[in-house]
Amino acid sequence: MQTIKKIFHTFVFLLSMLGVVAVLGFVRPQTRVVRQEIQIPVEVEAPTPNIRELIETVPPQYGISPLLAAAIVERESNGRRDAIRFEPGQVERARKAAPKGSSADDVRQYASSHCAFQVMGYHMPALGMSWADLYDPRTCADVAMKILGNCMERHKGKGKVAQIHGALACYNGSTQYADAVVGRIGELLIERTL
Predict the structure, then answer these.
(1) pLDDT for 132-145, tens place per residue?
(2) Is 112 helix (H, G, I), strand (E, B) or coil?
(3) Which helix (H) or strand (E) holds 174?
(4) pLDDT in tens, 12-22
(5) Which residue, 140, 143, 35, is CA-closest to 83?
(6) Cα–Cα dist 6/1, whole Å
(7) CB-CB neighbours of 132 under 10 Å
(8) Are 100 and 184 in contact (CB under 8 A)?
(9) What share of the chain is helix, strand, coil (3-state, %, to 5)?
(10) pLDDT (tens digit, 9 = 90+) per residue, 71-123?
(11) Which DSSP category does 85 fall into?
(12) What 3-state DSSP class applies to 78?
């Protein structure tokens, strides 16, 4: 019996040396679990801002009412971010503004109004950008409000209605456009307040 016990203990010792004892459950091994977190950076594209959100947030940064911006977007594109309109009368101005060596197709794009605010492509080279940058909604809103802000500044010192009317004519190049947008602002105010 002593010999069997001795053989058994020797057998258990050998198995524990091989790590088998833990598997068989004879001896509870002392283990330490080390948990390590690995952080992997993942690029996630920012959601494209909604045109309505941009109308509420961008114009005030340029001292412009969101109501005025909303009336412009409605008149210009009815809110379509991909709106484009070729302006044949602007080709010469576009040719002067376009980067040297621009193709005829690119000059045509610089002579077109783009995005929800219908910004003329020829404004973009002076800002260090291309007409194609206008299809980023935030860029479109920022550039449009910068242009409108400059137009508002040109008509500063007039009464508010005259300033806005003059700025709209400056923004679009037409007094009929300015009349239509001012009329729409009146309609929006009536809808919102009366």
Answers:
(1) 999 999 999 999 99
(2) strand
(3) none
(4) 565 555 554 44
(5) 140
(6) 9
(7) 13
(8) no
(9) 65, 5, 30
(10) 999 999 999 999 999 999 999 999 999 999 999 999 999 999 999 999 999 99
(11) E
(12) coil
Per-residue tokens: 124: 């973009």
Where are the domains positioned within the chain? 51-193
DSSP state of 134: G
Decide: 130 and 103 in contact? Cβ < 8 Å.
Answer: no
Which residue is listed with tokens 């500063």? 156
CATH topology of domain 51-193: Lysozyme (1.10.530)
Tokens of 91: 């080709």
Written in H, E and C, the secondary structure of 146-163 is: HHHHHHHHHCCCCCHHHH
- Residues with Cβ < 8 Å from 63, sequence gap 6 or more? 149, 152
In the beta sheet, which residues pair with residue 86?
112
User: How far apart are the C-alpha atoms of 172 and 138, rounded to whole Å?
Assistant: 20
Dihedral angle computed from the Cα positions of residues 64, 67, 72 and 78, in that order, rounded to the nearest 10 degrees: 140
Residue type, 181: V
> Among 166, 76, 170, which residue's Cα sits nearest to residue 123?
170
For residue 140, give the nearest of 182, 84, 97, 87 by alpha carbon: 84
- Using DSSP's 3-state secondary structure scheme, residue 130 falls into coil
How much is the pLDDT for 47?
A: 75
pLDDT digit string, tens, across residues 157-184: 999 999 999 999 999 989 999 999 999 9
| Encoded amino acid at 18, one letter | L
